[in-house]
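Sanity check. The docking grid for NAP depends on where the pocket ends up, so I'm generating a full predicted complex first rather than guessing from homology. Inputs follow.
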Amino acid sequence: MNIDLQGRTALITGASKGLGLATALRLAASGAHVAIVARGREALDEAYEAIKEKAGPRRVAAHVCDVTQPTQIDAAFHAVRAQLGPLDILINNAGGHALGHFHDITDAMWSHDIDVKLMATVRMTRLVWPDMIERRWGRVINVLNTFAKAPAAGTAPTAVTRAAQLALTKILSKEGAPHNVLANALLVGLIQSDQIQRLLGHNVPRDGGDFAQQQIGNRQIPLGRIGEPGEFADIACFLASDHASYITGTAINVDGGMSAVI
Ligand SMILES: NC(=O)c1ccc[n+]([C@@H]2O[C@H](COP(=O)([O-])OP(=O)(O)OC[C@H]3O[C@@H](n4cnc5c(N)ncnc54)[C@H](OP(=O)(O)O)[C@@H]3O)[C@@H](O)[C@H]2O)c1
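Predicted complex below; grid placement will be based on this.
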């Protein structure tokens, strides 16, 4: 399927690395103007150059922004809007590993997880929403994990935060639908990224190495391997496109069949 995003403008949070970067590259290659935000300047600059290469004549923007900080979200959004114009596509992707047992999770850990995932999504979406509604075209894609629907022992605080984002996605889909603004969630299992490299050790081979093999065994990834960032980017790009014009308010597992629930 040839996905054409010419004339569309996308903002992806947490896109200097991993799944966010893979998606930014994919959207740029499909013709979109692309803006990325993350905290670290160096990785952001490298990502900017890589996206520029794919984007050709299309415009690219990169801004330092910690999505836990409302003033930084505000500043980044307004800078991007001034550079690229109103946004058509928002991918709320920034986040990170936060898995533990309930009794070990402090208030600070709960607050951080809620800020970086739920509140960042609330705040950024609130800013892009009016333009999408007014222009009668919009795509909000929230990157969550499979625990959003299938919480288990040892998955606090992330399973709770992701479930809240799942509820938010549904609300956005219901309120956006009359205005042709669509909202969906992607529920990630285990996909190769900087985060996964940090967790599993460096230079993880395609089959995931020993630790991942154990995870594959324990967590039963039926496809028998960790996912590739490009496999995630493909579905994100599809949801961002006109091809997904009748899909809203849904959550898609991108997990090699790992989740116990649909
Ligand atoms: N990969 C997986 O298997 C997996 C599984 C389940 C869920 N997910 C979710 O998918 C998303 C992407 O994960 P990933 O594996 O690609 O992670 P990653 O490789 O660690 O990349 C995370 C990106 O987000 C940025 N970021 C982190 N905290 C941020 C903050 N407070 N403000 C702005 N940017 C921030 C990072 O840059 P800086 O550090 O420089 O800010 C980086 O660009 C996350 O929400 C993650 O929880 C991934």
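Relevant for the grid: The radius of gyration is 17 Å.
Also worth noting: Residues 13-20, 37-40, 43, 65-68, 93-96, 116, 143, 145, 188, 190-191, 193-196 surround NAP (CB under 6 Å).
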